[in-house]
Write a structure and sequence with these properties.
Layout: H1 8-18, H2 23-34, E1 42-45, E2 50-54, E3 65-67, E4 71-73, E5 80-82, E6 87-88
Antiparallel strand pairs: 1-2, 2-3, 4-5, 5-6
Length: 97
């Protein structure tokens, strides 16, 4: 595992730029196409099916980004269950399904 000093949002913005788009443009396009208003999923690399979604508002100190491919199950008001069978309990208001 390599230590990374950049915050996740910076890495996500960089990934968007590598696809010749901006984070803001990607977020707005996904928002308009899906109707998501909060915690908009961001395609990092659609060709490789890499999508991330935030657990909180992106400027919130507790915001984590979760990869769609690592999630086994998400149910309302339940911990997120990952493929490696560990879970992550979120505040009730932190994830909307």
């Amino acid at each position: 595992m390599l230590p990374i000093k950049q915050p996740p949002i910076q890495l996500i913005k960089q990934a968007c730029l590598e696809r010749y788009t901006t984070y803001e443009g990607t977020r707005e396009a996904i928002r308009l196409q899906t109707g998501f208003q909060r915690k908009v999923p961001i395609p990092i690399n659609p060709h490789l099916n890499i999508y991330l979604f935030p657990t909180h508002a992106t400027n919130h100190i507790d915001c984590c980004w979760i990869s769609y491919h690592h999630v086994l199950r998400i149910e309302k008001n339940q911990p997120i269950i990952f493929l490696q069978l560990f879970s992550l309990r979120m505040e009730k208001a932190s994830i909307l399904i």
